[in-house]
Specification:
By secondary structure, the protein is of the alpha+beta class. 40% of the residues lie in helices and 10% in strands. The protein has a two-stranded parallel sheet. α3 crosses α5.
């Protein structure tokens, strides 16, 4: 793709967002005898997750696969720095946090996000 900005706000029109296979894998893992839990601690692309057309994967993730904390990588909070990084705007992360809290509240779970942040990236200042 010429643009090479697949994850820009709203996602590229050519990007196919589908978590079904990942969801099916997690469900199959939960069915294996003697496997008590399968936890995902990090590696979830919050920006990709927010492009999904429904919350099925997000809800299943929160209900069964987080052990209390999920690490995500917004990497910065200033939009001009995020733009230089090729990351989506801060509002995408804020929407993710809001949805994460809402899903966990609905499930009655007390779970937290741990953001990875980068300081002193080119373009950032005090």
């Amino acid at each position: 793709c010429k643009e090479q900005q697949c994850m820009a706000d709203g996602g590229c029109k050519n990007l196919i967002v589908d978590h079904r296979e990942y969801l099916q894998l997690l469900q199959k893992l939960r069915e294996i005898p003697k496997i008590k839990k399968v936890f995902i601690r990090s590696g979830i692309r919050y920006d990709y997750l927010m492009l999904d057309k429904n919350d099925e994967f997000f809800e299943e993730l929160c209900e069964h696969h987080i052990s209390g904390q999920l690490k995500v990588a917004p990497e910065h909070v200033v939009d001009r720095v995020l733009q230089r990084m090729g990351k989506p705007s801060r509002k995408v992360y804020d929407q993710f946090v809001k949805k994460f809290k809402a899903i966990n509240e609905k499930l009655g779970k007390d779970q937290y996000l741990v953001p990875y942040l980068i300081s002193s990236h080119p373009g950032s200042d005090l």
